[in-house]
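Notebook B, p. 112. Complex prediction, attempt 2.
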Amino acid sequence: MKKSKNTEPTFGAVPKELEHLSDKEICELALSKLKGRELFPESNRLAREMLKKMKPSSSLNFQVNNRQA
Amino acid sequence: MEKSKSYTTFRNYNTEDIVYTFLSIGHKKILKAIEFSLAGEFLEHPVFNLGFGNYSTSKDAIADNIVSNNGDAFAVFNTVLHTAKSFLKNNPEVIIMIRGSDSTDSFSDTCMTTCTRRCTTECKRKHKRINIYGQYIEKNLSHLQWEYNFNGSFLHEFEEFMLENYRTGAEYLSLFITKK
C-alpha cells in the first residue's frame, strides 16, 4: 500500500508570507507578538505546584550566588 | 553535524518574564521561543521556570510538546543552554528550574493512545526531555561544576518532592541550576 504523504505543516515553521523578512526581523516580529504574554502557562503552573511541595534533602548542599549582577 | 553550533537569539527587555526567540534552521526554518518565568521561591531564592517551544505566527500559538525533527537538535539544545547561562550571568542570585513537558501523567496517557512502541508498564517516551538535560550535565560536569551547581528532584513520600545534590545516573523530575 502506498504511504500517504504527511502534508501537515510543521508547527512553528516560518510561513511563506514572512519568508521575505530577515531572520532578525522574524524573531523581533515574534517577540512583539509575544510581548506581555505568559508563553507556557501549563508548564509554569506545574512548576509552581512542584515548588510548593519541594523539600531539601538532609544532605543537600545548596549554593546560590548572592551577588546581584 | 557540528555539536557546538548554536543560533543567535533575540530578547525582549520590557517584560517581567524574560523571553528569547530564535530560528531553528534545519530542513525548515522553525521559530522557537524560550521563557524564564518566575515560579516562586526555594530557600528564599527566586526560582524561574524554563519554558521552551515552537511559536506559530499564523496560529499565534505556542506548543512545548512538538518534536520538530528539523535535523539540528544539537544547535537548538545549545541555544537553549546559552540563554540559561546568559540568564544566570545577569541574575546570579536566581535558580533556574527545568522540567520536561513529557514528564506528566497526561503525556504518557496521550502517548499510549497513538504510540507504536506498545509499552506495557511505563511509557518509554516519558521523561525523555529532562533526561537529555541530565545527559548533557553528566557529560560536561567536569567543567560545568566550576561555574554552576546542579540539583535534582524526585518524588518522595506523601506526594512531596525532595531536592538533592545532583547524582550521576539518577533520574530526576526537575533540575535546579544555580551559579556559584
